Amino acid sequence: MLRPERMSKVSVTGSRGVMPTVIETIHGLNLVHLSDYDGSWEGFDNGNPIAGADQASEKLVTVRALESTLDVSADDAEPGSIDEGWEERLEEIRTRVNELDDRRGELTNELRQVDEKIDRVAPFAELGIDLDLLSGYESVDVAVVEGNVDAIDEAVSASDEIRTFETFTGGDVVAVVAAPTEDAGEAPIDDALVGVDVTRHGVPETEQSPEAYVADLEDEKQSLETRRDELDTELEEIKQAEADFLLRVEEHLTMEVQQAEAPLQFATTDRAFVAEGWIPTGDYDRLVAALSDAVGDSVEIEELERADYDRHGAHAHTETDLEGTQSAADEDESPADADEQQQKAVTDGGSTVTMGDEPPTVQDNPGPAKPFEVLVQAVSMPKYSEFDPTIFLFLTFPLFFGFMIGDAGYGIIYMAIGGYMVTQVDNDAISSLGGVAVWAGLFTTIFGFVYGEIFGLHVLGAVVWSNVELLPLNKGLEPAAADFALGWMVISVLAGILHLNIGYILDFFENLSHGFKDALFHSGSWILMLNGIWIWIFSTQGEAAKPDFLYETFASGGPFPIGFTGFSGLGLFTVPGLGFELTAPLLMFLIGLVMLIVSEPVEAVEALDVVVNVFSYTRMGAVLLAKAGMAFVVNLLFFGAYEDPNGEFHFLRTHEPSYVAEHYGEGAEVVFNGLMHSGTAALLGGLVILVLGHVVVLALGVTSAGLQAVRLEYVEFFNKFYEGGGENYEPFGTDRNHTEDY
Fold first, then answer.
1. Distance separating alpha carbons of residues 541 and 86, to the nearest angstrom
2. Quick check: is 191 in a domain?
3. Are residues 20 and 78 in the same domain?
4. pTM of the model
5. Of 155, 181, 215, which closes a domain?
6. Which residue in 155, 256, 287, 350 is a FRET match for 235, CA 20 to 30 A apart?
C-alpha cells in the first residue's frame, strides 16, 4: 500500500479503581500504541507504577541473567503454564546456578594461571637446563632473557659492571651467568641489557627439570578441565530441565512489568486517569467490546480523531462526530485559547484531542513487497502522513540490480543465498534481506537470459533465442559491439528520467492536500523542467553539437533498432534578433523554471538538478560493463579467447588455440591461449582462478550493483518526495510465545 494503515486516536477515562483491569485488558489486546502524557494539564500528573513493579523488575533481571548463564534460547521451550510456587522454584534455580557458575569461574581462573605457568616455562625447556641451576646464587648474577643472541652478547660484553660471563642458548632464549665487579649494582645483567629489545623470564621456583615441571602442570590442567567439564554438564542438565520454566517466567514477568509501569504514560489525579493511544481504525470496535466486557460502564471510551494524510501539517486530522469531540469551529481560536480550553475540558471531564503526538506508522504492504520494508526503515520509518515508498523499491530495486549484473548463473546463486537467509536465519532483518536477495537474484537471472550469459559465458543465446533476431542483447565489451556500451548508457538515462518522474508525481499528489495550485507550482515545475530539458536533449535541434549516439542508439541500424532518430518538428517560433528557434521542450523547461522561482525562489539555484540527477543513473550502465568485464577476464584467463574476422570474441571452451588458424586463417587472432590449454599444472591453477574469480565477481556484485541501486533509490528518488522520521507502531502488549493465556 502507498499509504500506511489508517489510525485512530482513542481515549479511555475512568476511576483509579478500575485502572489495573483496564491496563490488563488493553495489554492482552496488544493493540493500542500508548501516547505519553507530558504533564502539561492543570490538575493532572503522570501516574505511578502499580505496586510490585520494582520486585517484578528485579525478578526479571534475575531470570534473564540465568538465561544468559545457561545459554537458553527461545527455541528451548513449548507454550505452557506457570505452576504455583514458581517464585520459590526460581530462587532454588538461582542459588544452584550461581553456585555452579562461581565454582566454574574459579576453575577457569586456575586454568588461566596454569596456562601462564606453562607458557613461562617453555623458554627454559629450549635451554635444556634444570630450573634449580638458574637461581639461588650469591656471588654471580643469573638472568634468562629472550631476544637477539648477538645483541645480548654484545651488550653484556660491553658492561663495566661485569668481570666475566657465560651464556647458554636455545633458539632465541639466552641464559646469562655473570660475575659482577665489586662496585656493580644489584642487577648488573639487567643494567647491561637496558636499550636491548629482550623479554625477561622469571625462573620458576622448583627443583624439577623443565620437562617434569611442565608434565606436572599438564596433569593439573587436565584435572581442572575435567572438573570444569563436570560443572558444565551439571549446568547443561539444569538448562534442559528448567529452560522452558525460565522462558515462561520471563514472558510472565515481562508482561507484569509492562502493565505495572503503564501508568507512567497516563494522566492521573487522585481519583481518575486518562489514557490515550493510537489503534488501527478498523479495530476500534474490538477495543470497545473488550473494555466493556472487562469493566462495563466504569470507563468512557471515545474515538477522538482519525488521522489524515498530510505531511506538511503539524496536525492534519479528521475529527469524529462523537459527542464531546473538539469541533472544527475551534480552528479560529488562538493557540493559547485553544490550549486553555483543552486543559479545562480535560479537568471538567470533557473530551478533546489531548496528547499532541503524531500517529505511529503501520507499513501495510503486500506479501511480495514486505521484505523491502527493511530497506526503507534503514533510512527512516515513513511518517504516517506520507507515502510509503516500499512498493516502489520492490518494483525498481531488483530491476536496477538485475540490469547491472545480468547473469543467469550469478542470479541463481543470489536466489539460493536469499532463500537460505529467509528459511534458516531466525532474525527478521536478515530474513527480510534474504527476501530482497531472492527478488534481486530473480531479476539478475531474467536479465541473464536477455543477455544470454551464465557466469560470463555467452552460451544461453544460442539455446534460448535461436529463432529470435534481436535477442540476446550484447553488453558491449567487444570492439564489434561498442555501440551497445554507449546504448546502455542511454538506456540508463531513460530509466533515470522515468524514475525521477515517478518521484516528482508522488510529490505532486502529496502536495494536493494544500491545493492544486501549490502542487502545480511546487512539484509540477520540476516535472516540466525535467521532461522539457530531456526532450530537448533528445531532439534534433543543435544535433551537430550533440553526441551521435543519442540518435544512433535507437536508429534502424543501432543496437536497439526501433527507428527513433531524435524528436523533430518541435519548433514554435524564432526569437527576434537572436535567430534562435524556441522549441516546445525549451518552453516547457522555462515555464517550469518560472513556476519554481515564483513558488520556491531558493530552490531555483538547483534547477540543473534535473540534468545532474539523471546523469547519476549512468552508473548503472557503468557497473554493467565493469561486472561483465571482470567476468570476461576470469573466463579469458581460464578458457582463452579469440577474435574472429568480424571482430567478435569467442572463448576457447571446446577448441584448442590451433583451431582458430585452421578455421579462420589469417582473419582471426588468438587473444590468449588460456590456462585450460597450457598443461596440467596450469589447468589446476586455472580452475582455482576460475572459481575464486567468479566468487569475487559475485561478492562485488552486492557491493557495487547493490550499493549503487540503493544509492539511486535513497539519494535520487527518495529526495523528491520522502521525508521519513515516523514512529513505528508498537502496541502495548506482548505476543505470548511460551505462556498460555490464563
1. 85
2. yes
3. yes
4. 0.74
5. 215
6. 256
